[in-house]
Amino acid sequence: MSSIKVILRKNRVDKSGKAPLFLRVIKDRKTKFISLSLKLEPNEWDEAKQKVKKNHSNSTRLNKYITQKVADAQGQIADLETKNQSTSARKLKEAIKGKPLVNFFEYSYNRCEKQKDTLALSTYKNYKNYLKKFEKFVGHKDLMFDDITVTTLKDYAGYCSTTLGNNNTTINFSLKILNLMFKEAQREDLIPLNHFPFAKFKVKKAKSTKLYLTEEQLDAFINLEVSDKAKANIIKDMFVFSVFAGGLRFGDVIELKWSNYNIKDHKITKEIRKTNRQHSIKIGKKAIDILDKYYKSRISDNDIIFPFANIDEEYFKDREHRAVVVRQAMGLSNMYLTKMGKQLELPFSLSFHVSRHTFATRALNNGMRIEHVSKLMDHSDIGITQVYAKIINSELDNAVDKYIN
Question: Using CA atoms, how far apart are residues 253 and 247, in angstroms rounded to an integer?
Fold first, then answer.
């Protein structure tokens, strides 16, 4: 058996003091709410009589509308239960609303596959992995967008934290993927705009920490003597090059060709892997000196500048192969850099990405305008660059606390 009742959801009162009116359907202890697209002040609704009180100017018209909606819903339920005794609360809701609900996992996985060729391979894999993580939490794939509520998000965040031991950054990213799927489904008009549980639940973001080398640490790194064996010297040169070449990311540095370098203007021009945008940047003197060092062994413009990884034709044609090459090269580079960081007694583990942070903090410290730093780093939003400005401001505050009393 199923039951239907009109409910004024007083826990959703808006800024004007009004709450939304819903049909509540209960079947096999499962509850579904169906919006009546009406809002009332709490004192305008008679819960016992299931009617709008006469203190509302349009009470008569609204009560006729509500009565008709209840009757239609009861009729739909009766027809459906006659045909199928095993009908669920979700199926009842679909019948009452007049259109099928959208399966969250079916939609989300399909969306990933449709965009597989336009997304970065790492992004595509991340989406899939985080969707599978949510699927494991739910325990099945029979989940509609309508089933995901604020309570669902809270329980999922708790599961990520307690069961999986995730930190807040990982939890936020886990929720971000779900959030993205909601927005895409709404954009395609598959789910209503008013069903967006993320608007009422957020996990507090952990304080962002950007690791970078100070001027003294950078000088020490540049002057550090490393073994000529293996590829330690190459990765050291690549790191310094990045610091003085706009903080180019590892994946872009290892695949740089001489054709990307305008030796006359001292500019690097290439399509950035992460953003797929054509990017041009004038490099600094230390970066130029490093390129001069490798120019001697150049044979053609198609040669790779830094011989650190096996960058062949397949690398540029097959992104699966490229992802493997970059991952292995990144692991090797960070192994060398970690060792160098220990030699310098750095208070953190040195990785290649620190070169990017070092470029940003140095540029701002030396007075470069933040919009110029943002452009050189190929940030999509200046807000991303402002994180570095906050670091500089924090350093100034600490200097005042330390030296001015």
Answer: 10
pLDDT band at 370 (very low <50, low <70, confident <90, very high): confident
Helix, coil or strand: residue 284: coil
Return the percentage of the chain with pLDDT > 90, whole number.
52
Q: pTM for the whole thing?
A: 0.62
Q: How many CB atoms lie within 10 A of CB 16?
A: 7
Cβ atoms within 10 Å of 189's Cβ, excluding its own: 8
95: which residues sit within 8 A by CB, 6+ positions away? 76, 77, 79, 80
**DSSP code of 50?**
T
**Selection from 291, 250, 251 nearest residue 267 by Cα:** 291
Q: What angle do CA 314, 319, 321 make, to 5 degrees?
A: 55
Q: Minimum mean pLDDT among 193-202, 320-329, 349-358, 378-387: which range?
A: 378-387
**pLDDT grade, residue 400 (50/70/90)?**
very low
Domains of the chain: 2-97 (no CATH), 104-200 (1.10.150.130), 215-403 (1.10.443.10)
What is the DSSP code (8-state) at residue 46?
E
Task: Place 402 in a pLDDT band, splitting at 50, 70 and 90.
Answer: very low
- Torsion, Cα 335 170 214 350, to 10 degrees, reads -10
What Rg value do the Cα atoms of the chain yield, rounded? 29
Cα separation, 93 vs 192, in Å, equals: 14
- d(CA 251, CA 326) in angstroms, rounded, equals 6
